Amino acid sequence: MRISTVFSKQERAYTGEELRPHFLLTELGLKGSGIGAFVGACRVRTEHLVDWEDRLAADRIEARWMVHFIGEFFGASGLREGVLLQRLFMSILCDEINARLLGSGAGELCRRDGDDLFFGKGAGQRKLSVSIVTASPVSLLLHAGINIDPEGAPVAAIGLNEIGIVPEEWISAVLARFEEEMRGIDWACAKVRPVL
After folding, report:
1. Which of 124, 169, 174, 179 minimizes the number of CB atoms within 10 Å of its CB?
2. Do 38 and 8 contact (CB within 8 A), yes or no?
């Protein structure tokens, strides 16, 4: 699956309504499968949540400032493939954070648990991310939000500002790494001979 990426410097809030088919095309000018990134506030009311577990619990998502990644993938085979892409993407986010933290000598590193990123463990655990993947009639859709300033979050949270990550440089590195991974996956599928 060939993908493109774009980082929009235009500030925009995320409300959950952006997780829709062709948002990347109509709002960010990205044609075909890909991931777009932008920065802005996050306020997703219960009725706009895609995750039924969260919706039934009357949860909400909120943060003063986040990096938002919206993905749309055409021609994917189903939600299982979408969840695999989501987990790959979240792993890349975590790796790119940890590469910077290790370079700065930070003692605590980011860890991925399923489709979420955390710092700390047990009672001291704080959440860095939100993420969901779903299907539309024409595509798979992904949202991953990474706190910059988590003020207003309904759970114990941490943000990029607190851990010393500069969002703009990090976003560009994440998008480039995801494109590279997807190219590698395409080549891995194309280079093998069939076994009969």
Report:
1. 124
2. yes
Instruction: Flag whether 117 is in a domain.
Output: yes
Distance, CA of 107 to CA of 122 (rounded, Å): 17
In this predicted model, what pLDDT tens digit does every residue of 25-74 receive, in sequence order?
999 999 999 999 999 999 988 777 787 787 777 778 899 999 999 999 99
Is residue 146, in this structure, part of any structural domain at all?
yes
Domain of 30?
A: 4-190
**CATH code: domain of residue 32:** 3.30.930.10
For residue 24, give both structure tokens. Answer: 């990347």
DSSP letter, residue 47: G
Q: Could you give the count of Cα atoms lying within 13 Å of 121 in the half-sphere of its Cβ?
A: 5
Cβ pair 155, 100 in contact under 8 A: no
Mind giving me the DSSP string for 87-146? HHHHHHHHHHHHHHHHHHT-S---EEETTEEEES-GGG-EE-EEEEEEE-SS-EEEEEEE
Residue 195 in any domain: the answer is: no
pTM confidence score: 0.93
Quick: pLDDT tens for 85-141: 999 999 999 999 999 999 887 778 999 999 999 998 888 899 999 999 999 999 999
Q: Which residue reads 């093998």 in tokens? A: 192
Domain membership of residue 196 (yes or no) is no
Q: Three-state SS for 69?
A: strand
- Report which of 12, 144, 24, 173 is spatially closest to residue 85, judged by C-alpha positions: 144
